[in-house]
């Protein structure tokens, strides 16, 4: 599904990703961990096509298409979802209207008719139920005055509705409380299937107690320096990252 080869990218003159390789197949959940400043969020930014980031070498293919050639909008239409890419508050645009616009744009891109009001309502109800999303939040202005937990619920609801092929969740450095961890992990576990894949960027080993990844990668200094199974996350929790850096240079 996703094939990243020898990716070099940076901002301004600074190289941040320095030859990163990653292969993701349908049905897989990949966790990316690593020390602060390693380039984890930069990877998410490059994949979603955030401006400022310049790719200087390497390739990123999504189902055989060159992702780097696509606009951020087309990447989204092709099924790449950077979760938490709309943490901004948009007063006046309701949550559900935002989703309806986004989803109908995607349908148009695929040559499909827009949802009728009735179809969309039914779909929204079904997904609300699936991810236990509070009906109260559906018509609220996008993220306006949402608590941290409500933002997470909302993000999971967006995932449920948009059904991306590849979802990238960057948990950032902001503290996730145990409630938020549960919301995210229950949502991901409900939504994971053999047709989609998740890249979960986290430095919370705890999150991986709930979402069992197929692979755990350590990103350090712009490269993936170690890959293992779920047990690697536990080892990292216990031993930190320094031993891997030493292993990587020796
Ligand atoms: P991580 O998410 O692993 O903590 P980041 O991808 O956020 O790491 O950052 C990697 C490195 O790139 C850091 O040294 C950071 O300071 C730098 N960096 C990230 N974004 C920018 C930017 N817009 N301008 C300059 N440097 C940046
Ligand atoms: Mg960081
Ligand atoms: Mg980060």
Could you provide a short overview of the structure?
With 250 residues, the protein is an alpha/beta fold. The chain is built from ten helices and twelve strands. The strands form three sheets. It has a six-stranded mixed β-sheet with strand order 6-9-10-3-11-12, sandwiched between helices.
- Would you list the SSEs in sequence order as H and E? EEEHEEHEEHHHEHEHEHEEHH
- Low-confidence segments: none
Which overall shape is indicated by the principal axes computed on the Cα atoms? globular
Could you report the average pLDDT, rounded to the nearest whole number? 88
Tell me the domain tally.
Answer: 1
Q: What fraction strand?
A: 25-35%
Query: At the third CATH level, what is the topology name?
Result: Rossmann fold
CATH superfamily: P-loop containing nucleotide triphosphate hydrolases
**Side-by-side strand order of the widest sheet:** 6-9-10-3-11-12
CATH architecture: 3-Layer(aba) Sandwich
Number of strands: 12
CATH class equals: Alpha Beta
> What summary fits the major beta sheet?
6 strands, mixed
Distance between the termini: 32 Å
Q: Are any ligands bound, and if so which?
A: adenosine-5'-diphosphate, magnesium ion
Determine the structural class based on helices, strands and strand pairing: alpha/beta
Q: Which bin fits the share of residues in helices?
A: 25-40%
CA-based gyration radius: 18 Å
GO molecular function, one term: ATP binding
InterPro entries: AAA+_ATPase, ABC_transporter-like_ATP-bd, FeS-cluster_ATPase_SufC, P-loop_NTPase
Organism: Taibaiella lutea
Family: Belongs to the ABC transporter superfamily. Ycf16 family.
């Amino acid at each position: 599904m996703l094939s990243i080869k020898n990716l070099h990218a940076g901002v301004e003159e600074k190289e941040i990703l320095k030859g990163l390789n990653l292969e993701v197949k349908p049905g897989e959940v990949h966790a990316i961990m690593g020390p602060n400043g390693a380039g984890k969020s930069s990877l998410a930014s490059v994949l979603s096509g955030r401006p400022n980031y310049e790719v200087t070498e390497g390739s990123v293919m999504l189902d055989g298409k060159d992702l780097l050639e696509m606009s951020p909008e087309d990447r989204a239409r092709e099924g790449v979802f950077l979760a938490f890419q709309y943490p901004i508050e948009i007063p006046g645009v309701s949550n559900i209207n935002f989703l309806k616009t986004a989803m109908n744009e995607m349908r148009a891109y695929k040559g499909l008719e827009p949802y009728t009001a009735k179809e969309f309502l039914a779909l929204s109800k079904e997904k609300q139920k699936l991810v236990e999303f509070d009906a109260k939040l559906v018509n609220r202005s996008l993220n306006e005055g949402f608590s941290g937990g409500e933002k997470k619920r909302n993000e999971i609801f967006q995932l449920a509705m948009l059904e991306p092929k590849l979802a990238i969740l960057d948990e950032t450095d902001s503290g996730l409380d145990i409630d938020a961890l549960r919301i995210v992990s229950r949502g991901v576990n409900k939504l994971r299937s053999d047709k989609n894949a998740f890249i979960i960027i986290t430095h919370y080993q705890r999150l991986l107690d709930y979402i069992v990844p197929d692979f755990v990668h350590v990103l350090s200094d712009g490269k993936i320096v170690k890959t293992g199974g779920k047990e690697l996350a536990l080892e990292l929790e216990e031993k930190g990252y320094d031993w891997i850096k030493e292993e990587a240079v020796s």
